[in-house]
Structure formats: C-alpha cells, structure tokens
Design goal:
Layout (H helix, E strand, L loop, with lengths): L1 H33 L3 H12 L14 H20 L3 H14 L2 H18 L3 H11 L4 H10 L4 H30 L6 H31 L10 H18 L4 H13 L10 H28 L3 H6 L1 H24 L9 H9 L5 H12 L5 H19 L3 H7 L7
Helix pairs in contact: 1-2, 1-12, 2-12, 3-10, 3-11, 3-12, 3-16, 4-8, 4-14, 5-6, 5-14, 6-8, 6-17, 7-8, 8-9, 8-11, 9-10, 9-11, 10-11, 12-16, 14-15, 14-17, 16-17
Length: 412
C-alpha cells in the first residue's frame, strides 16, 4: 500500500507539473502578445487555477516540492541575472551600484518597514521582515521590459545590474532578520553587520571560484573538455554554489549571482567561445529561467489567500504607495547623487526612481517564509503579492512613456 500511495503521489505531482507547463506556455505567449511582463500573467493564471477558484493546482507552500522549486528556481534566476551584467558598465557606475545595492536595500527596507508598522500595526521585527522581503528589484521583470523598450544604454544597464545585484543582498537581509525573529537572543547591530559581511564575502568567494572553474571547463583553450556540456555545467555549478555557500552558513544567493557574473564575462577572464556556442548557452539559460519564472509565479498565485489578502488589501496598498513614491526616490537620491564619477542627471535619477519592479526574488522569499512558518508570513506574502501586481502593472507599463518624457528613449 505504501508503494502504491507513493506512486499515486508521483503521478499526481507529474500531472500538476504538466498542467503548469501547458498553461504557463500559453500564458507566456499571451504576455508577449499584449506586451506585458510574463510574471504578472503567471500570477493571475495561478490565482485562477488555484484552490480558490478552479482548483486545478494545489501544492502546499510548506511542501518539499514547493520549497525545491523556490530554492532552485530563485537560484537559477539570480544566476541568469548575474550573467546579464557586463563588466564595462560596472567600471563606469560601480560606486552607485555598490551603494544602492547594499545601503540602498537597507534604506528601502527601513522606510517600507516603518510604513508596514504604521499601516498594519504588526511587531517591529515583522514589519522589518516585510520591508526586507520587498527591498530588492527584479531582473526577471526588468530585462524583458528593457528588451522591448530601448532606453539610454547607461541607464538601462545600471538599473538591470542593480536589480541583479540587490536580489542577493535582499535575500541576505531577509534571512538575517528572520534569524532574529525566530531566535531567542536580542538584536545586536554589530553582530548583524558582521553576519551580513560574512555571508556576502563567503558567497562571493565560492561563486567566483566555481564560476572561474566552470569557465575553464567550457571555454579554456586546452582544458575545455566539457564545452559541449555547458548547459549541464551551469546546472551543476548553480546547485553546487548554492549548497556550498549554504553549508558554510553564508549566502547561497550571492554565490550563484557571482557565479553568473563570472560565466557571463568569460571573454574578460581571457577565455574564448564561438558565437554559436554562446548563442546555444544563452538560449538554454533563457528557456530554463523562463520555466523557473513560470513555476514560481504560477505556484505563488495558487497559494494566495484571498481572504487574508482582502483583509490587508488597503493597508497593503498604502504600504506599496509609500514603497514606490517615498522609499525608492529617497534611496536613489541618497545613493546616486553623491557619485560624482557617474555624474547622474536629474532626468536619469527620476527614471531610476520609478523603474524598480518587484517580482521573482521577493515572491520566492515570501513563499519561503510561508513554508518556514515565519512570524507574520501570511501577511508578508499577501502584501508582497499586492506589491508585485502594483509595481508591474503600473511601473512596467509606463516605462516607455516616462523614458520619452525624460528624453531617455532611444528611437530605433
């Protein structure tokens, strides 16, 4: 009977995966036709096929399958975000990127947390956990937007680079606050900063080492005996980077992100790959990242608690308004204005203030918090979902209009 029960469970899970792949593929096509980011369509479709409406898909947030999808999916998307960063852009705007992706995440988390404390009346630590979850931007949303809307290269590359880099920082801050929320000890600012530095540094070292090793195995002139298996190498290295860093109690997200940077800039490391090999690997990574987005956001949509979201709807909208119109502008001006080397104009900073969609990583983090039964996790997931919908529907759809108004649009 036990074997039969396991077999039935496996069949049921396989059926659910098939449903998600089938519906998700057509959802992606629909998103392309109506020219909106696919993640918002995935979310809406997830709500439709979830237990709250049609009941086609019902995977618990704390199930092993859901946690596996969230961990691997968010890791692979971060790897994809790192691989899209170009070192030539980092050389020009690295000061702004470093500040806005580290201190900027803390500023955004603090202001958003204060809004959550005011609107929701939750404990301070829960409010800060919500602020940290929402603090990072989303490369999975921004990259497709900038492929459709041609923006001045320096601005577009900076926003995309920030979105990839601050995801790792946002994850680190979230789990640092979570450790305080679920622990018995008192909060220590020095210990928290030391923990952040430790997690970031070890994650960077592991990601850099594995990224260089992967580059050698697929692109070295003499030792690239795995060049035909580059996609498999990326899968192994993403899993290896995350698990190695996590095993050393550091940031697995930072490790996979740095790994992506290394592999996305193999030419800068002195290695060479043919145009065809690069194209094949990019196609594979793009397809895999698309599948991961599909699973994460459809499952996130199926797990929405409509009753709870309705209960916190207006408070959530208030938090997101502060998040968009106060936290982001304050963060951009405090972090970018002092960078005299980059010489940001007012129009460029105004554009960066508005372009900061919330998406995959905050959504994945919210799902993980629910699965880990973190304090206030259901409230955090509900507000995160509201933030994802509002930022994508409002900001992503007005990107081209704003760029044109600010003379940052590059006409084709």
């Amino acid at each position: 009977m036990e074997s039969s029960a396991s077999l039935e469970l496996a069949k049921h899970t396989l059926l659910i995966f098939g449903i998600i792949l089938g519906i998700g593929t057509f959802s992606g096509l629909l998103a392309r036709m109506v020219k909106v980011p696919d993640v918002v369509v995935f979310l809406l479709i997830g709500m439709l096929i979830g237990p709250g409406v049609l009941g086609l898909v019902n995977i618990s947030a704390d199930s092993t399958v859901n946690q596996l999808i969230l961990i691997f999916g968010s890791s692979y998307i971060l790897f994809d975000g790192g691989a899209s960063i170009k070192l030539k852009v980092l050389k020009e705007v690295w000061i702004t990127l470093l500040v806005i992706a580290t201190i900027g995440v803390l500023i955004t988390a603090a202001i958003t947390g204060a809004a959550a404390y005011y609107f929701l009346g939750v404990p301070v630590i829960v409010a800060l956990l919500l602020g940290a979850t929402l603090a990072s931007t989303d490369p999975a949303t921004l990259v497709p937007v900038f492929k459709q809307v041609k923006i001045k290269e320096r601005v577009a590359q900076t926003v995309m680079s920030e979105s990839a880099f601050n995801d790792a920082m946002g994850a680190i801050v979230t789990f640092t606050i979570l450790g305080v929320a679920m622990g018995s000890g008192e909060f220590s600012a020095s210990a928290a900063v030391a923990g952040l530095l430790k997690q970031a540094v070890i994650g960077i070292v592991i990601g850099g080492a594995l990224g260089y090793l992967a580059a050698v195995l697929i692109a070295h002139e003499k030792y690239s005996f795995l060049h035909e298996f580059a996609p498999v190498v990326t899968l192994m290295a993403v899993i290896g980077a995350y698990m190695s860093a996590d095993g050393l109690q550091s940031s697995g997200f930072m490790a996979v992100f740095v790994f992506g940077i290394m592999l996305g800039n193999v030419e800068s490391l002195g290695f060479k790959r043919t145009e065809n090999e690069n194209h094949q690997l990019e196609e594979y990574v793009m397809t895999t990242a698309f599948i991961m987005r599909m699973f994460i956001f459809i499952l996130l949509g199926t797990q929405v608690n409509f009753t709870l979201m309705n209960q916190y709807l207006w408070s959530g909208i208030g938090i997101v308004v502060v998040f968009m119109l106060v936290a982001r502008p304050v963060t951009v001006f405090l972090c970018a204005l002092p960078d005299r080397r980059a010489k940001w104009s007012l129009k460029e900073m105004l554009f960066m203030c508005w372009t900061r969609e919330t998406g995959v990583i905050p959504g994945a983090l919210a799902g993980m918090l629910v699965g880990m039964k973190a304090p206030g996790a259901q409230i955090i997931a509900s507000v995160t979902f509201i933030a994802i919908l509002m930022t994508i529907l409002i900001q992503a759809t007005t990107t081209k209009w704003l760029a044109k108004k600010l003379d940052l649009l590059v006409e084709e």
